[in-house]
Design brief:
Elements lengths: L1 H9 L8 H19 L9 H17 L1 H19 L15 H15 L2 H10 L8 H21 L5 H15 L3 H18 L2
Helix pairs in contact: 1-2, 1-4, 3-4, 4-8, 5-7, 5-8, 5-9, 6-9, 7-8
């Protein structure tokens, strides 16, 4: 299984593959694994079942240090194998390390995502792709969503693909926080709705 993550990392040498392509490759590995695993815990292998599972996991992680440590180790392995990021050794000094710091940046990103101008852009660019399949529409959405995230992060001197990836990694460590999860979910739902996904 780990060799799949190594393929994502090796794809970095292919200059035609953007961070969007590589991020989708990672999600394309992770999502099927999650959908295969969650029925063991009583959840349906659907997007709704996955959302419920993740909500329960976040709630448990907010109260259990051992679970949080296991989740962090899983993400460290995925980011290390897929992107070559050694989060503990490549610490970007501007990446927030506290719940409060991640919370503030997520709220800023969510505000940008919920802006009328961005939602209108999503409706025009993605909503008009009615004949495209879901994968193509999601890729097109990421092509405008990641640059929006990067523009917000750049205001905090977090730049480029590596900065975006390191921030994504920081967010995964703090997703047990209800404010972070709710801000991210509210913005994501609104953007997906605007995109017709």
């Amino acid at each position: 299984m780990l060799e799949k993550f190594d393929r994502v990392r090796a794809s970095a040498r292919d200059s035609s593959l953007s961070i969007i392509d590589r991020w989708q490759m990672l999600l394309g590995i992770r999502l099927p694994l999650q959908l295969q695993s969650i029925p063991k815990y009583g959840f349906e292998p659907t997007q709704e079942g996955l959302n419920s599972f993740n909500a329960q996991l976040s709630k448990i992680a907010s109260e259990d240090e051992e679970i949080r440590t296991a989740i962090e180790a899983r993400w460290d392995l995925m980011f290390s194998r897929a992107f070559g990021l050694q989060v503990n050794s490549v610490q970007h000094e501007k990446i927030p390390k506290t719940v409060e710091g991640v919370r503030a940046l997520i709220k800023e990103i969510a505000t940008a995502m919920l802006s009328d101008s961005f939602l209108t852009q999503v409706k025009q660019d993605i909503g008009s792709m009615s004949t495209a399949d879901t994968v193509e529409r999601r890729k097109a959405l990421l092509a405008i969503l990641i640059p929006l995230h990067q523009s917000v992060l750049a205001r905090h001197e977090i730049r480029g693909d590596e900065g975006w990836l390191l921030f994504q990694r920081a967010v995964t460590d703090k997703m047990y926080d209800l404010e972070i999860r709710d801000s991210a979910m509210q913005a994501t739902v609104a953007v997906f709705k605007a995109a017709g996904l």
